[in-house]
């Protein structure tokens, strides 16, 4: 088996963020607003993370039809939430544009097997912090992950902040958006993958799992970990040994640790 060669280069000297900058506020290039602009974006080939529509208004029939046809999540929200995004004339409609083109999971799986490598898929259950997501994708790309799977709802917006935090890795690692992660796991298992859940609800350590076969690694949300229905589908549950007083690691750090345990086993054992 031919292994991919990877190298990582750290980036120093970046200017620190000013303390008053709002957290996760979208950049102006990450969204479009106004009825006509949103409609034209839906008709284009641009990837859209989600739509915000003012819940008090009822004249979004065409937008809703196009969004449902494309599988774009719609959130009905109060005027105040729209105004927090922009105070310009949004007319009750804002579309968040993704910084990446989403991949089809079946295509990613096929390409991974055809590459001659042992496929490695990372599935993220409700990772909502944009910078965590970007850092995770950076680790995923550097460790040779063939694809990252995220849910349609309840996932971080893939915007300019995510792209920057990933150091451009989002340009290279395929991201698949799935309506139902449970169905995605079932599909992957039927395709020959084992499922390894990284969770504190385990007595086994990450070093005890075998990553030398096609593997899906599941990482859970920052708040409550992996959903119980997904945990039930895991072939193995593993945890990272912790020696300090703090009970858990940041999810992006934890992801890097388990991914590079998979690399260690595949490269050096």
From TrEMBL:
Residues annotated as domain RNA 2-O ribose methyltransferase substrate binding: 31-103
SUPFAM superfamilies with a match to the protein in the record: alpha/beta knot, L30e-like
Record GO biological process: methylation; RNA processing
Lineage top rank: taxon: Bacteria
A Gene Ontology term for the protein's cellular component: cytosol
GO molecular function, one term: RNA binding
This protein's UniProt keywords: Methyltransferase, Transferase
UniProt key word Methyltransferase: yes
Protein name, entry field: 23S rRNA (Guanosine(2251)-2'-O)-methyltransferase RlmB
Source species: Lacihabitans soyangensis
């Amino acid at each position: 088996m031919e292994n991919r060669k990877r190298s990582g280069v750290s980036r120093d000297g970046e200017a620190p963020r000013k303390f008053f900058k709002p957290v996760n506020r979208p950049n102006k290039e990450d969204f479009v607003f106004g009825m006509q602009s949103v409609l034209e974006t839906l008709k284009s080939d641009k990837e859209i993370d989600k739509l915000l529509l003012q819940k008090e208004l009822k004249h979004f029939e065409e937008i809703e039809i196009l969004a449902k046809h494309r599988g774009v999540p719609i959130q009905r929200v109060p005027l105040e939430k729209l105004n927090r995004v922009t105070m310009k004339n949004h007319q009750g409609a804002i579309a968040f544009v993704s910084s990446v083109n989403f991949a089809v999971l079946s295509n990613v799986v096929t390409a991974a097997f055809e590459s001659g490598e042992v496929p490695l898929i990372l599935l993220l259950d409700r990772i909502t912090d944009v910078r965590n997501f970007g850092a995770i994708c950076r680790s995923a790309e550097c460790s040779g992950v063939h694809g990252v799977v995220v849910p349609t709802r309840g996932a971080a917006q893939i915007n300019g902040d995510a792209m920057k935090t990933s150091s451009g890795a989002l340009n290279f690692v395929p991201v698949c958006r799935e309506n139902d992660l449970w169905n995605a796991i079932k599909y992957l298992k039927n395709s020959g993958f084992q499922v390894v859940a990284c969770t504190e609800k385990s007595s086994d350590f990450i070093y005890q799992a075998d990553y030398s076969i096609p593997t899906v690694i599941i990482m859970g949300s920052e708040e409550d970990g992996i959903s119980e229905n997904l945990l039930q589908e895991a072939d193995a549950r593993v945890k990272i040994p912790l020696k300090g007083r703090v009970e858990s690691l940041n999810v992006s750090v934890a992801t890097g640790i388990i991914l590079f345990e998979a690399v260690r086993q595949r490269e050096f054992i």
